[in-house]
């Protein structure tokens, strides 16, 4: 029995279902709220506005689609899927551009653009062997490090209460601090495989405390009936060239993030470099699953960095274990009470659990940089790409992009990962292979 439990640290192998479910559930709870938030933000910008009933349908569909996409990553269909413990969800990366599309063209144009963009990224993924060489190890390491930096503000926002009116209140700060303290104490005091359930312990304790603090609406959990099937094509897609072009550009940025996420996951969880077919499969799933997502009226799905951080922290990589979490997500999309329960998790509780995980992604990036070696060339690529990427996208300095067209601003002004990706690739292509100063022979 002990050997089967230890399979949680191996990619393949069956784990006792009673042991697997808590680990799978931990992965889903870590990303659940973040999976739903992008839809509400994009829908809020739509003209004409979506009704509350329409938004409720989209939120239900988002849970179902995220579960299906995660299953495809875990257990590929043909060449679509990476066979890695990648958890998929609706991406924040597209919020800015798709909110603009929704405001200018309407929500149906969002769906049309996502449908085309997903096909483009999926096809690029299948053809990755022809262009993968430009994504060198030092480029991937730079992107992973930038992902860690970019998520720090996400963790802080959740810790303070999310996009709520009482953001930064004493109650939110207290709830986030208690949740974080429980995670740390569980990690210190627990033994064996139970040590890896620290995030779940923090979520459970934080949720219970949130109930007593009046921050959970228990009545909403039973609303919406007991069973509700996903709605296919709840929004009829429309196709506008401007919307499609701008969205496809962001799909390329999302592809860079996916390469970084999967590289970090393989490096931190499996202690090796990522294989070409894993990059190809993960991108293909990213793209084609996003097209499937559009059929259910939802924005694109992509790999979730929160879960990469969880893998880096716990080393739990077993596909069967993560699969139980994907099944829970699918059930949440079919059974409204389950979805409502997950969605009722307060942001401060999620923030208390995830803020340390985001730090783990940054640490993985630093480890990847170290494994590439500190040659003059690598130092130049990493230092310049991070300096420009972080410096030029900091909120207080983002005005530096004002001279560029609006489409360039929407892609790069607030996206450190996109800037780091472009600069690191350009430098990797133009800098000579040997930049180190050679000793002058006497």
Any chance you could write out the topology, listing elements then pairs?
Layout: H1 2-5, H2 17-45, H3 52-74, E1 88-90, H4 95-105, H5 107-126, H6 137-159, H7 170-189, H8 198-212, H9 241-270, H10 276-295, E2 301-303, H11 305-314, H12 319-334, H13 336-343, H14 347-372, H15 376-393, H16 406-412, H17 416-430
Helix pairs in contact: 2-3, 2-4, 2-12, 2-14, 3-10, 3-12, 4-5, 4-9, 5-9, 5-10, 6-9, 6-14, 6-15, 6-17, 7-8, 7-14, 8-14, 9-10, 9-11, 11-14, 12-13, 15-17
How would you explain this protein's 3D organization?
- With 442 residues, the chain is an all-alpha fold.
- The chain has 17 helices and 2 strands.
- It has helices at 2-5, 17-45, 52-74, 95-105, 107-126, 137-159, 170-189, 198-212, 241-270, 276-295, 305-314, 319-334, 336-343, 347-372, 376-393, 406-412, 416-430; strands at residues 88-90, 301-303.
- It has a two-stranded antiparallel sheet with strand order 1-2.
- It is globular and about 65 Å long.
């Amino acid at each position: 029995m002990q050997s089967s439990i230890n399979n949680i640290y191996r990619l393949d192998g069956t784990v006792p279902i009673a042991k697997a479910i808590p680990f799978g559930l931990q992965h889903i709870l870590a990303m659940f709220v973040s999976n739903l938030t992008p839809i509400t933000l994009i829908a809020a910008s739509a003209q004409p506005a979506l009704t509350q009933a329409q938004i409720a349908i989209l939120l239900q569909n988002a849970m179902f689609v995220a579960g299906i996409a995660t299953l495809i990553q875990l257990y590929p269909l043909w060449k679509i899927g990476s066979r890695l413990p990648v958890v998929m969800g609706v991406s924040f990366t597209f919020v800015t551009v798709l909110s603009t599309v929704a405001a200018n063209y309407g929500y149906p144009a969002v769906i049309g653009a996502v449908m085309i963009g997903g096909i483009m990224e999926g096809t690029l993924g299948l053809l990755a062997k022809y262009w993968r060489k430009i994504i060198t190890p030092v480029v991937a390491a730079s992107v992973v490090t930038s992902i860690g930096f970019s998520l720090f503000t996400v963790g802080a926002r959740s810790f303070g209460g999310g996009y709520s009116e009482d953001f930064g209140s004493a109650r939110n700060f207290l709830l986030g601090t208690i949740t974080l303290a429980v995670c740390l104490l569980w990690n210190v005091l627990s033994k064996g495989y139970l040590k890896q359930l620290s995030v779940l312990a923090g979520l459970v304790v934080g949720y219970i405390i949130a109930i007593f603090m009046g921050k959970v609406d228990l009545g909403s959990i039973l609303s919406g009936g007991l069973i509700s099937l996903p709605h296919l094509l709840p929004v009829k897609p429309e196709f506008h060239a401007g919307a499609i072009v701008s969205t496809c550009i962001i799909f390329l940025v999302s592809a860079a993030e996916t390469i970084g996420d999967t590289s970090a996951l393989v490096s931190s969880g499996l202690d090796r470099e990522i294989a070409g077919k894993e990059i190809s499969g993960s991108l293909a799933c990213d793209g084609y699953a996003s097209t499937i997502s559009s059929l259910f009226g939802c924005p694109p799905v992509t790999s979730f960095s929160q879960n990469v951080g969880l893998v880096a922290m716990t080393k739990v990589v077993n596909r069967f274990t993560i699969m139980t979490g994907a099944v829970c997500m699918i059930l949440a999309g079919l059974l409204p009470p389950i979805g409502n329960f997950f969605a009722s998790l307060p942001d401060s509780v999620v923030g208390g659990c995830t803020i340390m995980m985001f730090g783990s992604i940054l640490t993985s990036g630093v480890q990847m940089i170290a494994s590439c070696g500190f040659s003059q060339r690598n130092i130049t690529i990493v230092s310049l790409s991070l300096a420009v990427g972080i410096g030029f996208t900091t909120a207080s300095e983002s005005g530096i992009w004002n001279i560029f067209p609006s489409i360039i601003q929407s892609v790069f002004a607030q996206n450190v990962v996109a800037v780091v990706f472009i600069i690191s690739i350009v430098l990797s292509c133009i800098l000579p292979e040997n930049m180190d100063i050679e000793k002058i022979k006497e």
